Amino acid sequence: MGKTPVIQLLILPLFIFIGCGSGSGNSEAASPVETSASMPTTTADASATPQTETAQTTEKIDLCRCLTEPGNSQWAVDNYDACNAAINKELRVENWEKVNFSKEPELNKKWDALVKMCTGSAKLKTGVEAVDKNNELVPEIGTSYGYIWESVNEAAQMYTTLAFDGLVFRSTAYAMNGQTESENFSKIIDISGSWTAIDAESAAGIIKANGVKVGWTFSSDYTTLTNNKGVEFTRLKVK
Fold first, then answer.
1. Class assignment of domain 3-19+145-237?
2. Which of 73, 120, 159, 199 is the most buried (most CB within 10 A)?
3. Where are the domains of the chain?
4. How far is the first Cα of the chain from the last one, in angstroms, to the nearest whole number?
5. pTM to 2 decimal places
6. Do the bridges between strand 232-237 and strand 168-175 make them parallel or antiparallel, or are there none, so unpaired?
């Protein structure tokens, strides 16, 4: 069965069928040069160039120190605005502290990359409890890292996909109609809902439309998962 065409068609839906600084400096203006009596006219010394604000240099803020310095340290307090500006620039947002990471998977990915660059891990928290909890799993299972999941049941002629994105999971189920190419499949249902990580190898969710609870258990290497109905899905890299 040619899976590549199927997955290419399903990248956009990404669904699943389940359960049914700155520094400172002082500037000083140059004083006029005193002249002798034979030269009554006072002139400025050409070698003394007045310094202005625009001539000051700004110390480059240490972005990684911004992320790792204790928030109550004097350095963190003194450089609060500069650190925020540096993080905003890195993430390309107006105010990173107001970003809803649960709805911005791409920003979540950038945050993870930034934290890993500075600390060697992605354990630094965003401050959003649900996001921080899910971030333990997202790098291994999430669409923002290029992963979706598929299940092919040829006996039942059912093809389903599963995607985890931020705090949301999505699904689409297709009838295969005896075919192997996705353009010949018929969509049966779309489902979405919220999900949360339970631990490093399991997660739970609630279907938005009917409140039905669902669950998933991941293999230790995250190549497969099994849902609460016993259906096995395989992880696929799509980007």
1. mainly beta
2. 159
3. 3-19+145-237, 58-139
4. 21
5. 0.55
6. unpaired
